[in-house]
Amino acid sequence: TAEHTADKRLRERARAVIPGGMYGHQSTALLPGAYPQFMRGGRGARIWDVDGNEYIDLMCSYGPVVLGHQHPRVEEAAAAQAALGDCQNAPGPVMVDLAELLVRTVRHADWAMFAKNGTDATTMCCTIARARTGRRKILVATGAYHGAAPWCTPRPAGVTPQDRENLGYYTYNDMESVRQAAAAAGDDLAGILVSPFKHDAGYDQELVDPGFARGLRALCDETGAALILDDVRCGFRLHLGSSWEPVGVAPDLSAWSKAIANGHALAAVLGNDAFRDGARQLFVTGSFWFSAVSMAAAIATITALAEERAVEAMERSGAELRDGILAQAHSWDLPISYTGPDVMPYLSFAGDEDHRLGDVFAEHALRGGVYLHPRHNWFVSAAMTGDDIARALEATDRAFAAVRKQIGN
Ligand code: PMP
Question: A GO molecular function for this record (predicted)?
């Protein structure tokens, strides 16, 4: 089993100089005990912790890694730009190249703006909607994650009621609940924020009902509110374009980050012409928002996604993983739910509300050499080979065996 000597030492040092030793979504306080807190690196679909233990990566850095770690073309493009300059007095030409590429790639987009994190992008979408409409209220789905700023963080610490007073709430896939929330907002409705499918951490996932997506579009058309798609987690993993293009619904604004630069720090807001003036009014910026390296990496990523038919590759691997997992759960006589798109699946055990069985499963999967998550959707990358999937499935089979043992026969 895995040795974690270097990891333990780093955790001890971190406890003294980092509040809580670690914070945010990558804190292992949210994971079973065996998970390493610190990683050394990765290549393709393999990653190594600081003690040198190797894992098949089914989390992909929580989404950013889509072509695999250290993708050669992306890293070459980033290195070539880094040799010229990164953080300068003004952006490089790559900013315009990337905006043009995104406008060509994403059907609803007439323009692009850039930032660093998904939270920057979702926040900016809300601000643009308000600037354009002169109204205040944004509707969000109860339990949906849109980032870690005071208006959207899931933890109450340090958040004031005023931070949330311009939000209204609806239930995902329930148009009647949206109509009620819109009625409550009245003529102050600035926008409706929605994720491509329901992917709340800790819960079974739900694909979008196309009728619901069309209903949101119609309501926004009626009221002049902005339809805002939070494509931060799904963007460029489900489709090479907006995740709702296959659904046939175009948002007015969309928020992107994670996969667009294969792990380089970049976020984007895309929008249509109706919201261009609203966007132009904002003063939004950051010291690192115009850094050229991540923009060069994004151009290489989007180009490689298309040329390597990466979405199809992920769908094939995701289907193979799903078939393997479902067969294993069946053979161990363990009732599970395996929900969401094959490339972003979520596994839960029937009746496991406290996630105890999920934790046993994840911990044994980790010991067997696959890094997955007990209460967050997983991510399949285009770098997964048949051998990677076979090794991942060997580990999950042992993990199911451990769950079987935990429950008893
Ligand atoms: N929206 C969604 C749907 C996300 O999954 C995330 C990140 N998990 C965010 C917004 C926030 O992105 P970031 O952590 O980069 O600020």
Answer: pyridoxal phosphate binding
Ligand 1 site residues (CB inside 6 A) read 117-119, 122, 145-148, 195, 230, 232-233, 257
Residues 168 and 181 sit within 8 Å (Cβ to Cβ): yes
Q: What kind of architecture, by CATH, is found in domain 72-307? A: 3-Layer(aba) Sandwich (3.40)
194 backbone φψ class: left, alpha, beta (φ>0; ψ -120 to 50): beta
Q: Would you tell me which CATH number, out of the four given (3.90.1150.10, 3.20.20.80, 3.40.1080.10, 3.30.390.50), belongs to the domain 5-67+309-407?
A: 3.90.1150.10
Contact between 106 and 242 (Cβ < 8 Å): yes
ipTM: 0.99
Q: Which amino acid is at 403?
A: V
- State the Cα torsion 87-90-93-99 to the nearest 10°: 90
Write out the residue limits of the CATH 3.90.1150.10 domain(s) in the chain. Answer: 5-67+309-407
State both tokens at 323.
């078939």
* pLDDT, mean of residues 310-316: 98
247 CA from centroid of ligand 1 (Å)? 22
